[in-house]
């Protein structure tokens, strides 16, 4: 990485309230278990993201929230005891693309590179973070796709309106393909890295447990505030 000096890394998250998060996991975990797992995913992602480093760069971590009060978010994050602060922002109203576009514009106003990372990107590591930075440094726009047809992270050095379009069927397995089509139509290119797992369905979690990407005793983590 040669050009980057300031990186804004944002995660999107709903407050892990029973019945509102990871509802597709309820048949396996129950509604309370699904909410607890969403909480585990988020806290694990924040702990990991806060430790990311960039050669010659400074990384600032933002959490773009939906739901929950300020007091609830503070209580949720306190057990992490991170050395670097997590900067909280509220998501705007609108479809996911509109919310991502707003966050990206805010982050680019304070940085050379904006990255958005999904909290259920359980395989995303420091190595993957550096690969994404190298890719965006070379291409200006880079994605880490998901096996399910979406993507777990993307980075850019300037806003690219078409990737936030309402024409994209957000939350479906068409997101990455439709994003590529819109970029091609706009005459733009991006770097797509190797796909990774994320967790939406019971089969995703079962596979992650089998691979060790999620520990069998995940429920014991962050248990002080359970």
TrEMBL record:
InterPro entries: Nucleotide-diphossugar_trans, Trfase_1_rSAM/seldom-assoc. Pfam families: DUF2064. It comes from the Bacteria. NCBIfam families: glyco_like_cofC. This is Glycosyltransferase. The lineage of its organism: Bacteria, Pseudomonadati, Pseudomonadota, Betaproteobacteria, Burkholderiales.
């Amino acid at each position: 990485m040669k050009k980057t000096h300031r990186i804004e890394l944002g995660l999107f998250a709903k407050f892990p309230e029973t019945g509102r998060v990871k509802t597709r996991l309820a048949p396996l975990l129950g509604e309370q278990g699904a909410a607890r797992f969403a909480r585990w995913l988020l806290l694990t992602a924040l702990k990991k993201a806060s430790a990311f480093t960039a050669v010659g760069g400074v990384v600032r971590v933002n959490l773009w929230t939906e739901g929950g009060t300020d007091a609830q978010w503070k209580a949720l994050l306190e057990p992490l005891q991170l050395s670097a602060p997590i900067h909280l922002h509220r998501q705007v109203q609108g479809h996911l693309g509109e919310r991502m576009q707003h966050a990206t514009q805010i982050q680019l106003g304070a940085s050379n590179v904006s990255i958005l990372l999904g909290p259920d990107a359980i395989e995303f590591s420091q190595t993957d973070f550096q690969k994404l930075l190298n890719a965006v440094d070379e291409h200006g726009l880079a994605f880490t796709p998901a096996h399910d047809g979406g993507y777990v992270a993307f980075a850019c050095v300037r806003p690219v309106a078409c990737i936030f379009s309402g024409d994209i069927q957000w939350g479906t397995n068409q997101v990455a393909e439709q994003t590529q089509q819109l970029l091609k139509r706009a005459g733009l290119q991006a770097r797509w890295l190797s796909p990774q797992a994320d967790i939406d369905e019971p089969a995703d979690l079962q596979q992650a447990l089998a691979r060790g990407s999620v520990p069998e005793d995940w429920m014991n983590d962050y248990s002080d505030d359970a």
